Amino acid sequence: MAAAPSAEQFAALQILLKASKKDEVRRLCQECFLTSASSSEKLIEDTCSILSVASDEAKQLICSLHNLSRHVVHRGLISPEEILSLFPEGFHQNLKNLLTKIILENISAWRNEVQASQISLPRLIDMDWRVDIKTSSDSVSRMAVPTCLLQLKIQEDATLCGNDLTTSALTIELNKQTVDTVLDGLGRIRDQLSAVANK
Fold this sequence. Notes:
This protein has seven helices and three strands, in the order H-H-H-H-H-H-E-E-E-H.
């Protein structure tokens, strides 16, 4: 989780006052959110030319913007008041308001980007099922036994598959007892999730 920006980082954000247009600040904020922003030579060069600052100042600014935007996303701050409260007393009022506005404009896209970039378990995309009757068997007692065929469509984590979304299908056969066990387990999971969500 991103730590709250330090006083030094907030001081570095004041460099943005050298920008001639709000769009330049907006573009910098958007580009600085990326994980690789602080090591991007092109971004550092662009920042130097846009704001007429030295390379060290540009790096400090990029790191500060990156840290501020990541902190807001990871802490789940969604209201202007929550974001404004992060800024120290005496911070330039117009710049504070502009940064808050830009963060709020981008927060949902940034949150989605963070979630998409996390390594995760495979995700269930779709499920299909049907009930079949087994009519042939080597055992007479197993004749005409109903079974459930359950097909799960699963999407593998894109970061583990070279950024290609791979979807696979898994088909399993369940007898009545197994279906009962699965339903009982899923019912307990639902109850626990509801209990956690209601806290």
